[in-house]
Amino acid sequence: MPTGRVKWFSLEKGFGFIANDEGEDVYLAASSLPAGTTTVKPGTKLEFSVADSRKGPQAMSVHIVDAPPSLAENSRVNPDDLAAMIEDTIKILDRVGNGLRHGRHPAGPEAERLGRVLRGIASQLEA
Description:
The chain is of the alpha+beta class and 127 residues long. It has two domains: 3-66, CATH 2.40.50.140; 72-126, no CATH class. 33% of the residues lie in helices and 31% in strands. The chain is built from two helices and five strands. The protein has helices at residues 79-101, 108-126, and strands at residues 3-10, 15-20, 25-29, 45-53, 56-66. It has a five-stranded antiparallel beta sheet with strand order 3-2-1-4-5, with no helix packed on it. Helix 1 (79-101) packs antiparallel against helix 2 (108-126). The radius of gyration is 17 Å and the shape is flat. The protein starts with a strand and ends with a helix. 9% of the residues are buried.
């Protein structure tokens, strides 16, 4: 299996690129990340298979080989900032709840974004 390191990855955009060991850029979709992984940091070493797509090579079946140490996991967000994030999330959840009452489920990208926000808040609370 080819290996490479993450060049960049955007959680908001849902994709990034890997520089494989041959120097070629490989597209990395968030959906190709291992289960339970929502983002990867630049420099993370990955093992993956490659599929040709209309936009060029795309990483599939991605496995994290070596992740750089995370400073963010060892620090907490300022309590006032976390409180503001939770209050904003409550507003979003209220809007989603009202939509559900009217039979409207959140669209795929909106649901995924909300899931990432909730997991991020949960990780801050558990830190």
